[in-house]
Each structure stands twice: as C-alpha cells, then as structure tokens.
C-alpha cells in the first residue's frame, strides 16, 4: 500500500485561519478530549468555527474534528480554544478512572476498528 503524504494545507491559509497564532496557551485539548457544541453556528461566524460546531452536536474527539475539517490538530486546538473562550463548546476529558497501562475494553477497540474501516 502506497501512503500519500499528509497535506497540512497552505501555510498562508492556516496563518489566516488562526489569526497568526501558532499554539494554544494551555493543554486543555488532547487528542481524545470530547467536544460538545453548546450552540448552533451563527451568521458571520468564521467558517471553520461554524463547521466545528456543526460536527460537535454530539461528543466528538479532537482528533476526529481534525480529520473531518481537514486541518492539522494544532490548528484545530487553536480554533477550539476560541470556541471554548466564548462558551460555544464544552470540553470533556476522558474518564481518569483507568490506568494508562491497563488495556482498553473490547467495546472501545471495536469502535476504533469500525472508525478505521470507515476511512
């Protein structure tokens, strides 16, 4: 199988999308943080913000958002920071009850496998 190079987008476009910011001030959003929209997109909203809100009507992981909007995770984290600051989303970390070294349950693995097949 030949892999295609990852297209991270035009650097000028990414600079514009993030307003010149290159990193998030804190580490609120890791790859598996679940994002839930608290409102609908509004007219005049930045298109990337609107797309994220539309995607997150149900809890959606940061990595899934990145894949759907076809933007690097770092850019998505900046956009999510904007939405969180304005109260348009809620961020939920995965449950901390499990140890990092404990294996994931079979239901979770089945969901991951299903998601990979859907790609």
Automatic annotation (TrEMBL):
InterPro entries xrefs: DUF742
Protein name from the UniProt record: DUF742 domain-containing protein
């Amino acid at each position: 199988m030949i892999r295609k190079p990852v297209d991270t987008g035009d650097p000028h476009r990414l600079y514009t999308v993030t307003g010149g910011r290159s990193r998030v001030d804190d580490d609120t959003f890791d790859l598996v943080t679940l994002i839930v929209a608290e409102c609908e997109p509004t007219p005049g909203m930045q298109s990337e913000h609107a797309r994220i809100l539309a995607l997150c009507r149900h809890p959606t992981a940061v990595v899934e958002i990145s894949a759907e909007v076809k933007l690097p995770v770092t850019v998505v984290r900046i956009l999510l920071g904007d939405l969180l600051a304005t109260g348009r989303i809620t961020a939920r970390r995965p449950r901390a009850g499990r140890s990092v070294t404990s294996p994931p349950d079979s239901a979770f693995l089945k969901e991951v496998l299903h998601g990979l097949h859907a790609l």
